[in-house]
């Protein structure tokens, strides 16, 4: 009997693996060695990298360029930690990445973008591709060259066929989602004039609010990131001309100035923001928020009330996007960070729904202008039974946000 049960269990595991593989594909890495001569290098001085899966059929001249996420480093100490990981060196990166969700090549799982050219740019600069410091300290050998990486990789993709692009979508998750906001208009300016160019930010709309101790800690952190990476000259001038550069790292302060169409996918209860902006470890020395920020279901009534106030602040921060149909959003009430890269949340039979629409359908309707209503905002937690919640412990990644205990 035990042997029979073991055989059944193994069969289920094999079936699950085959089902998973059917929902995406592995794509090899491309190391851009020529970028080194241009100074467009990762934190450790190694060349940048990307993964490219060629389009086909009607999508042969259409492009999805997706930016990997991974937080930021704000000083020499935290950047040195990243330098020896895949978030700071192409020498530490996987040789293949799994493409699913927005990057899937399967029509049934990604109906609007499956046959486009699909690219994932690896994230190895720690500054959302905004940094540009010429000098390199020989004592630490750190290179802050993210802005050069962005332009150099885009130039490479143009040479590989994107110069003929008819449609293009710049997207990204987390710090990559912030990149797609900050570089949206720059990306559009680098593509052919007649192309339809739009931007998508997934879990990249980080908000400028006080933490539970009343301190504007994330504001201080972003100011340090911008200073360390020399980012000011690569942030939108329309913002830096009126606000300090650190504030211009927040989407709410630049969103109104973005000319290109943009779509925001974000959970109103993003666990990264709850753990790092609202209730970071340094603001919670006693650890009373530990269970709550790991799982919203474990919040006390008082904590949940504070989390609901955070949601209100988050929704208020979206107001600069205005009412233009070119600016869309899908703001659900799930407790999850990033939803476009995984099949279960992008497009699946049990994917999160707003107004009977999956994230995939909402993004596709916005991009192809199939709908007059491109703004979907969920009711407050715990109203949405279709939500997926994924426990995400940012405290396990000390190089992502140094203020965590």
Automatic annotation (TrEMBL):
- Keyword tags: Cell wall, Cell wall biogenesis/degradation, Hydrolase, Secreted, Signal
**First and last residue of the signal peptide:** 1-24
Specify one Pfam family: PAE
In the UniProt record, does the keyword Transmembrane helix occur?
Answer: no
The EC code for this enzyme is 3.1.1.-
- Keyword Disulfide bond among UniProt keywords: no
| A single BP term in Gene Ontology | cell wall organization
* Source species, domain of life: Eukaryota
State where the protein is found: Secreted, Cell wall
Q: GO molecular-function annotation terms?
A: pectin acetylesterase activity
GO CC, alphabetical? plant-type cell wall
Similarity field:
Belongs to the pectinacetylesterase family.
Q: What does this protein do?
A: Hydrolyzes acetyl esters in homogalacturonan regions of pectin. In type I primary cell wall, galacturonic acid residues of pectin can be acetylated at the O-2 and O-3 positions. Decreasing the degree of acetylation of pectin gels in vitro alters their physical properties.
Record protein name field? Pectin acetylesterase
Tell me what organism the protein belongs to.
Answer: Lupinus luteus
């Amino acid at each position: 009997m035990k042997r029979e049960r073991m055989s059944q269990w193994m069969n289920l595991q094999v079936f699950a693996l085959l089902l998973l593989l059917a929902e995406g594909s592995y794509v090899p890495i491309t190391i851009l060695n020529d970028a080194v001569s241009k100074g467009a290098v990762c934190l450790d001085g190694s060349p940048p990298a990307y993964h490219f899966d060629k389009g086909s059929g009607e999508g042969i001249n259409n492009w999805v360029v997706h930016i990997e996420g991974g937080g930021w480093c704000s000083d020499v100490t935290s950047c040195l930690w990243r330098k020896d990981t895949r978030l700071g060196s192409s020498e530490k990166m996987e040789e293949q990445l799994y493409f699913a969700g927005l990057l899937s090549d399967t029509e049934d799982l990604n109906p609007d973008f499956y046959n486009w050219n699909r690219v994932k740019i690896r994230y190895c600069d720690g500054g959302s591709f905004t940094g540009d410091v010429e000098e390199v300290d020989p004592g630490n050998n750190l290179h802050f060259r993210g802005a050069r990486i962005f332009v150099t990789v885009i130039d490479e993709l143009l040479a590989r066929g994107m110069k003929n692009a008819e449609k293009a979508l710049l997207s990204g998750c987390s710090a990559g989602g912030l990149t797609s906001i900050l570089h949206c208009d720059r990306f559009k300016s680098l593509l052919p004039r007649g192309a339809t160019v739009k931007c998508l930010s997934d879990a990249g709309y980080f908000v400028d609010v006080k933490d539970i101790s009343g301190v504007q800690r994330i504001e201080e952190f972003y100011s340090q990131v911008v200073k360390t990476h020399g980012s000011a000259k690569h942030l939108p001038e329309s913002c830096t001309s009126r606000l300090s550069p650190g504030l211009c790292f927040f989407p709410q302060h630049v969103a109104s100035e973005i000319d290109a169409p943009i779509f925001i996918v974000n959970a109103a209860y993003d666990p990264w923001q709850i753990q790092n902006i609202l209730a970071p470890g340094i603001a919670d020395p006693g650890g009373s928020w530990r269970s709550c920020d790991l799982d919203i279901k474990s919040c006390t009534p008082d904590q949940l009330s504070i989390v609901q106030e955070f949601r209100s602040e988050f929704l208020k921060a979206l107001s600069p996007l205005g009412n233009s149909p070119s600016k869309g959003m899908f703001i659900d009430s799930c407790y999850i960070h990033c939803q476009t890269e995984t099949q279960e949340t992008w497009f699946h039979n049990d994917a999160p729904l707003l107004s009977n629409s999956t994230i995939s359908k909402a993004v596709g309707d916005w991009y192809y202008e199939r709908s007059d209503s491109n703004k979907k905002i969920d009711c407050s937690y715990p109203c949405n039974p279709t939500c997926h919640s994924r426990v995400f412990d940012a405290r396990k990644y000390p190089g992502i946000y140094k203020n965590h205990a």
